[in-house]
Amino acid sequence: xxxxxxxxxxxxxxxxxxxxxxxxxxxxxxxxxxxxxxxxxxxxxxxxxxxxxxxxxxxxxxxxxxxxxxxxxxxxxxxxxxxxxxxxxxxxxxxxxxxxxxxxxxxxxxxxxxxxxxxxxxxxxxxxxxxxxxxxxxxxxxxxxxxxxxxxxxxxxxxxxxxxxxxxxxxxxxxxxxxxxxxxxxxxxxxxxxxxxxxxxxxxxxxxxxxxxxxxxxxxxxxxxxxxxxxxxxxxxxxxxxxxxxxxxxxxxxxxxxxxxxxxxxxxxxxxxxxxxxxxxxxxxxxxxxxxxxxxxxxxxxxxxxxxxxxxxxxxxxxxxxxxxxxxxxxxxxxxxxxxxxxxxxxxxxxxxxxxxxxxxxxxxxxxxxxxxxxxxxxxxxxxxxxxxxxxxxxxxxxxxxxxxxxxxxxxxxxxxxxxxxxxxxxxxxxxxxxxxxxxxxxxxxxxxxxxxxxxxxxxxxxxxxxxx
Length: 469
Ligand code: ADP
Ligand code: F6P
What we know:
single chain; alpha/beta; Rossmann fold; ten-stranded mixed sheet; six-stranded parallel sheet; binds 6-O-phosphono-beta-D-fructofuranose
């Protein structure tokens, strides 16, 4: 019997499952992305409701129970998907929050749709939260929800976590909606960011753009003119480390890892990349580095193989079509120029895989290439480190949140192709003792700071945040 009020309500753009068509039938599939990876395991041993979009246009499916959670789909019309999700969220905010790797576009129609959809999320969250309950809002798609929800339900504790970076004020201030976004967030009691620098960027934006008349910033607390206090601090997200350690050690995953290597002709060095097919992930730069290494004869196509998993993402947006075209053209050129018959230099996989298969790829890989131009955290880097305790090597971009914690990785600046090439070769050629030393330290780090630790920290910070006097 579903209850109608919940002590903990999660509000995220997507539900943990997505409505998709398979063989002419409508089915629920796991949603893509790090938010779902993290929150799915946090919620698996907690009671609560999750509100989010079902992934298709039109009327929302009826609420349902899954894995002990109450899932409450939110309806988005085709126009709202275009304007709120593809437009404002991924055409305006995403580029600004990721250092304008592609230009941002601003349209007043998009902003209006964003406000309308955020209002809908706030209303449903207000209906579902128990008296004095907690609502945990997620990510850049829902930045107005904290203020709108506080107006409807001043009794609930409101937290928001940003899975992506928060930009420096010089970029943020380009957004025509900038003041409304800040005021929206300031409705929360606690705001969690991936890095200290993100929290500082937010506080600086409040100080500079809202000014003394609207806010006072003391330490990590922002106080608004009506006396409400909102704390903004870093709480870096993580993964279900023990889950990955156990999965990676199962005989089935170990055997599958050996099979993957055998299928590729048992290369001496197996390199791996796993990313949503997004221009922020630096896949183009990574392929350029690898292509040059092959062309210069510094990598041998018989001894070194590369698997690139590129998960389909936001496929109707032009920038995503462009990156897909570029990546696929480059992969095919590398294979055309270098692959021996029957053994491609780059194995390109443009689809989703079960967790077991992902774990097998992590176990199989000698070197993991994580080279985003900007990334809030990058959970893939942590998953690889969890799957290895004293083997393997991680090449990691300095522009990921993960680089703050995984200091023993082979760090690189993906914009610097020459150095990135050297770093890839260093990782490939590192002595087993050096690899083991680096990997052990990183493995300990992700064991100590796992996703349960993150969720507890966030919820404690939220519960103890200062409130309106
Ligand atoms: P983002 O949230 O930007 O997509 P993250 O690296 O933080 O990036 O998280 C991606 C998550 O999605 C990881 O848990 C990763 O294992 C998972 N993932 C990525 N590609 C696939 C795929 N093709 N099939 C299944 N899971 C995937
Ligand atoms: O945090 C980045 C994010 O937008 C998440 O909200 C989501 O998990 C992931 O990327 C996938 O994006 P989308 O929901 O747009 O497919």
